[in-house]
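Worked example

This section walks through a single chain of length 192. The input is the sequence exactly as stored; nothing has been trimmed or padded.
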Amino acid sequence: MKAVHLTQCASTMDEARLLIDKGEAAPFYLFSDRQSKGRGQYGKSWESYEGNLFLSVAVKSGAVREPALLSLTVGISVAEALAKEGLRPNLVWPNDVMIDGAKTAGILIEKHGGAFIAGVGLNLNAPGGPTVLEDGRLINSVSFHTGRKEDVEGWAMTLAEAVMNRIDLGEEEILPSWRLFSQAQHTGEMAE
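Given that input, the structure is written out below as tokens.
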């Protein structure tokens, strides 16, 4: 799968759209060191601190078996990667990945030019511990929990591959996996 690493952009989602418009065939992924206009669901802005992951994965729309569940599929991919690092992530419908009640990642899905673009913003190396934003949301970073600086490029490749490995799964595999990480019980622990 082709990888594109940008130093700076407005939004990796916009850059993925531009690549598709220029004829780049999915699948591919791109990530950027800095993002000036990151966005999330419902037009919310995504705080794009340098050292975090701003990733977009483009997938041919025909390769996605359950388009309605794509956000869940990407969330599971992120949660499983975090769990492999010994963390205990929770998924919150429809697109948030939390650790200890603080948002650690967000997911955005868009369709463009015969492809789905899955955007992932993952707080990898935010300074300090959990932080309260102006709107009252609590955010968290992976490095706070691991105690080390996280490799952005390594995480980009890991998550892009994880998404590609999961997109052809059906509802019978997606929903049970999502329930394992869902926060339906609001316990702060993975649901059993």
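What to look for: The chain has a mean pLDDT of 86.
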